[in-house]
């Protein structure tokens, strides 16, 4: 359809073009020229006819010629005037032209200047571009560096995560180990008990009285217990009768045991054993007898028993270890566990049967030396307990804590009987007959009446008090401060004479560095941050000796045996060193 | 379409080279030169021959001059027909330029209308437009036009201004799209073989069945002899504006594009020259 349409349309257009070519374009120029020619011929004809007419009238022609001559003269004058005018105009134009030329020259020079400026700018652009290029290169390098560093960081984080996982794994392993340990122990105890019971059952018992009912199985455990606690004879009978049911018996025994532990901590005979304090002359140690890695983590506290035969160390690994000191060497005897955090302070009771420790887990713990499970846990502090000491009084201990309180505990009731709020962090405590002396971070030593726990005296020192020690005669108080100075205070009288002890190189390594007075009160010993033990002579006030090279890190505590024979120093990197003069 | 606009232009600017010669019998002072002119096909003889008149007046005495009229080979030329039509009808197969004899005496009152001034031509032209619009739009479009629009049509023709003329004429060529064309096509068919001046009847651009009518359909209806019969040589030429459109050309398109300014499609049917 479209093709058909196009055909007739194209045909018409073509035909029209053809028609115009034939009829129009061929003729238009011809006709135009003809018309022009025609006009010209008619014009010439007109002029010719005019001239012929003039020739015919000769007379009038002379006057008309004169007239024409005048006219021509007039026009000549006019034309001359016009020439003058035009010349003037030419002059003006020339002036104008010159002006234009001058302007052109000025513009040219300006253009030149602009071009120069442009060239200079171009040069600057080039230099700036170059600078930019170098900057860009530097930036790229830095970017690359950053990328590498980031990669490293990422690797490190991944490694950190791995380490954290390992740590968690180790912790869970340790917990599992602890659990299995406890389980084993309880199983062993049960087995022991069983064995005892069996032997008891096997042994023949003669029953004198038949007053008790043979059907005592129905007797209530409570009444039995009461009987047991009041009358020893009843106990024997009870045992013999219930031997046929060992399980019930053992559970009773358990209950009974726990009750004893809970309420009456100390048996009377333990308390009756009072310490015999003697002051043998101390001997200044000269060399290390033994160096050992005593704990799995840093050691915070060390103490000799009053008999000098036992040494206790307490560390960040939550354990208290007991060591036998025999013939110049330390032998591991047992480990007391039960604390859930690191141990900060240890003390033997004066009789040497029990050991008291302060712990980071906000409690103080009491063990009997033959039982690794704590006999008593004293809880109540709200922050770590920094010091725990037996008072001179029976059944009482006093604890100091970072929560700025000092608490007095009754061991028989296993309860806190007194709380004193102090204005500062308590770092250490010592006790003498009637008073408790505490050291604080506000550079003060406070003396308290041990019955009422009333502050009776404040002594100002030079820095944070890290530890206190009291001489065996209770006459001298040693304090160690963060100003790297040991201070010996005379407690007698009101004068409180003080002597300072310093040494080159001695530096108090931490907020809990512990210094001691020798048992005879003639020497002072302290460990320094440089890993050396410093010993001062009290009478001369000078440094007696310096024992270096055995510790690789800051010494946290030292202890001097009551026999005066041994000094033990412990440090933050698990090492304990036994020093002696032998 | 661009082609259609070109067609309109070509139609408008169609020219015929003409040689005017003074009649031998006219009394002159001296010999009269022939006068040559390119005559616009769409205009009227008396509208474009002022120069011819002036040219011949130069050689004649004023008292010998009467109304000018034209004659070709003995036939007086009717000025009220467009020039293109006159040429196609009388002289399409003769040699160019078209040689017209100019008379200033013996006006043939029986054959020709008098033309004392241009206003007569204008009246004639406008009546043609109105008649055509009556056929195309029942006179609605031309009656809606203002006086100045009518004047613009006439001035466009008189001064040979294509754009001026078509700015208005465009409206006359519009039609409602749903009807596919004008009501009736304004056309006139001129023939040499009859004494009738022309054939003019009502004829729709679209058949009652809805198919488009072509030039062939029109001739079949009006003048079947003009159509070539099978196997015979062509006997008649159908000429519009000096060309022979194909017979399948749609009549509506022809009316829109090949009409003269008076809006009529002037179609000449001529016998094929026998030389």
From TrEMBL, chain A:
It comes from the Eukaryota. PROSITE patterns: WD_REPEATS_1, WD_REPEATS_2, WD_REPEATS_REGION. InterPro entries: ATG16, WD40/YVTN_repeat-like_dom_sf, WD40_PAC1, WD40_repeat_CS, WD40_repeat_dom_sf, WD40_rpt. Residues 197-239 are annotated as: Disordered. Keywords: Coiled coil, Repeat, WD repeat. GO terms for biological process: autophagosome assembly. The keyword Repeat applies. Gene3D superfamilies: YVTN repeat-like/Quinoprotein amine dehydrogenase. Residues 111-156 form a coiled coil. Residues 222-234 have a biased composition (Basic and acidic residues). WD repeats lie at residues 292-333, 336-377, 378-419, 518-546, 548-582. Residues 209-221 have a biased composition (Low complexity). This is Autophagy-related protein 16-2-like. It comes from Zoarces viviparus.
UniProtKB/TrEMBL annotation, chain B:
One of its GO terms (biological process) is autophagy of mitochondrion. Pfam families: ATG5_HBR, ATG5_UblA, ATG5_UblB. Residues 11-104 form the Autophagy protein ATG5 UblA domain. GO terms for molecular function: Atg8-family ligase activity. It is a peripheral membrane protein. Residues 184-269 form the Autophagy protein ATG5 UblB domain. Keywords: Acetylation, Apoptosis, Autophagy, Cytoplasm, Immunity, Isopeptide bond, Membrane, Ubl conjugation. Residues 120-174 form the Autophagy protein ATG5 alpha-helical bundle region domain. One of its GO terms (cellular component) is Atg12-Atg5-Atg16 complex. It is found in: Cytoplasm; Preautophagosomal structure membrane. Belongs to the ATG5 family. Forms a conjugate with ATG12. Part of the minor complex composed of 4 sets of ATG12-ATG5 and ATG16L1 (400 kDa); this complex interacts with ATG3 leading to disruption of ATG7 interaction and promotion of ATG8-like proteins lipidation. Forms an 800-kDa complex composed of ATG12-ATG5 and ATG16L2. The ATG12-ATG5 conjugate interacts with RAB33A; this interaction is bridged by ATG16L1 and promotes ATG12-ATG5-ATG16L1 complex recruitment to phagophores. Interacts with TECPR1; the interaction is direct and does not take place when ATG16L1 is associated with the ATG5-ATG12 conjugate. Conjugated with ATG12. May play an important role in the apoptotic process, possibly within the modified cytoskeleton. Its expression is a relatively late event in the apoptotic process, occurring downstream of caspase activity. Plays a crucial role in IFN-gamma-induced autophagic cell death by interacting with FADD. This is Autophagy protein 5.
């Amino acid at each position: 359809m479209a093709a058909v349409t196009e055909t007739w349309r194209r045909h018409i257009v073509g035909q029209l073009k053809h028609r115009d070519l034939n009829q129009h374009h061929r003729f238009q120029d011809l006709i135009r020229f003809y018309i022009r020619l025609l006009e010209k011929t008619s014009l010439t004809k007109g002029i010719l006819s005019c001239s012929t007419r003039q020739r015919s009238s000769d007379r009038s022609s002379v006057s008309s010629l004169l007239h024409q001559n005048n006219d021509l003269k007039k026009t000549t004058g006019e034309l001359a005037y016009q020439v003058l005018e035009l010349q003037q105009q030419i002059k003006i134009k020339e002036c104008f032209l010159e002006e234009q030329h001058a302007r052109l020259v000025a513009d040219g020079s300006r253009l030149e200047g602009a071009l120069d400026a442009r060239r200079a700018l171009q040069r600057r652009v080039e230099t700036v571009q170059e600078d930019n290029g170098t900057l860009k290169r530097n930036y790229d390098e830095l970017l690359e560096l950053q990328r590498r560093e980031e990669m490293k960081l990422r690797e490190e984080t991944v490694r950190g995560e791995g380490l954290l996982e390992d740590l968690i794994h180790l912790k869970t392993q340790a917990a599992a180990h602890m659990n299995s340990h406890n389980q084993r122990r309880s199983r062993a105890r049960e087995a022991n008990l069983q064995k005892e019971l069996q032997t008891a059952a096997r042994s023949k018992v003669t029953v004198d009285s038949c007053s008790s009912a043979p059907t005592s199985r129905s007797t209530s455990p409570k009444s039995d217990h009461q009987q047991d606690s009041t009358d020893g004879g009843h106990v024997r009978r009870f045992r013999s009768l219930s031997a046929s049911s060992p399980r019930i018996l053992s559970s009773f025994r358990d209950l009974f045991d726990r009750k004893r532990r809970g309420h009456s901590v100390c048996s009377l005979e333990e308390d009756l054993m009072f310490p015999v304090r003697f002051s043998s002359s101390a001997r200044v140690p000269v060399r290390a007898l033994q160096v050992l890695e005593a704990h799995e983590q840093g050691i915070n506290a060390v103490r000799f028993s009053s008999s000098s035969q036992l040494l206790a160390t307490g560390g960040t690994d939550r354990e208290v270890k007991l060591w036998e000191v025999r013939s110049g060497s330390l032998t591991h005897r047992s480990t007391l566990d039960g604390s859930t955090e690191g141990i900060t302070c240890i003390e033997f009771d004066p009789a040497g049967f029990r050991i008291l420790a302060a712990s980071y887990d906000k409690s103080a713990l009491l063990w009997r030396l033959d039982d690794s499970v704590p006999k008593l846990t004293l809880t109540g502090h709200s922050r770590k307990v920094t010091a725990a000491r037996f008072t001179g009084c029976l059944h009482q201990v006093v604890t100091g804590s970072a929560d700025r309180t000092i608490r007095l505990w009754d061991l028989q009731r296993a309860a806190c009987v007194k709380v004193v709020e102090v204005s500062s962090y308590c770092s250490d405590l010592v006790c003498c007959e009637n008073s408790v002396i505490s050291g604080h971070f506000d550079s003060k030593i406070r003396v308290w009446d041990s019955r009422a726990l009333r502050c009776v005296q404040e002594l100002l020192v030079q820095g944070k008090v890290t530890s206190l020690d009291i001489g065996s005669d209770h006459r001298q108080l040693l304090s160690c401060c963060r100003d790297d100075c040991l201070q010996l205070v005379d407690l007698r009288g009101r004068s409180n004479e003080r002597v300072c002890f310093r040494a080159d190189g001695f530096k108090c390594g931490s907020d809990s560095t512990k210094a001691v007075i020798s048992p005879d009160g003639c020497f002072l010993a302290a460990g320094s941050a440089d890993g050396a033990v410093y010993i001062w002579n009290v009478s001369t006030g000078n440094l007696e000796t310096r024992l270096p090279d055995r510790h690789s890190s800051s010494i946290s505590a030292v202890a001097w045996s009551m026999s005066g024979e041994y000094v033990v120093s412990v440090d933050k990197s698990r090492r304990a060193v036994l020093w002696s003069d032998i | 379409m661009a082609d259609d606009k070109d067609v309109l232009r070509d139609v408008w600017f169609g020219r015929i080279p003409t040689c005017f010669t003074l009649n031998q019998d006219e009394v002159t002072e001296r010999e009269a030169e022939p006068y040559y002119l390119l005559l616009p096909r769409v205009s009227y003889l008396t509208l474009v021959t002022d120069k011819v008149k002036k040219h011949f007046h130069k050689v004649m005495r004023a008292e010998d001059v009467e109304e000018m009229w034209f004659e070709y080979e003995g036939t007086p030329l009717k000025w009220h027909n467009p020039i293109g039509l006159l040429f196609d009808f009388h002289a399409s197969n003769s040699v160019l330029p078209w040689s017209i004899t100019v008379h200033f005496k013996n006006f043939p009152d029986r054959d020709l209308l008098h033309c004392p001034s241009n206003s007569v031509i204008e009246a004639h032209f406008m009546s043609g437009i109105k008649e055509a619009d009556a056929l195309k739009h029942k006179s609605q479009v031309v009656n809606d036009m203002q006086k100045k629009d009518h004047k613009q049509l006439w001035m466009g023709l008189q001064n040979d201004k294509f754009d001026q003329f078509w700015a208005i004429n465009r409206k006359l060529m519009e039609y409602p799209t749903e009807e596919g064309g004008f009501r009736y096509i304004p056309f006139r068919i001129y023939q040499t073989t009859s004494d009738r001046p022309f054939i003019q009847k009502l004829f729709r651009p679209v058949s009652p069945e809805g198919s488009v009518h072509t030039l062939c359909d029109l001739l079949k209806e009006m003048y079947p002899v003009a159509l070539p019969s099978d196997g015979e040589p062509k006997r008649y030429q159908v000429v519009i504006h000096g060309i022979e459109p194909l017979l399948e050309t749609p009549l509506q398109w022809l009316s829109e594009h090949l009409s003269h300014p008076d809006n009529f499609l002037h179609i000449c049917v001529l016998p094929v020259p026998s030389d």
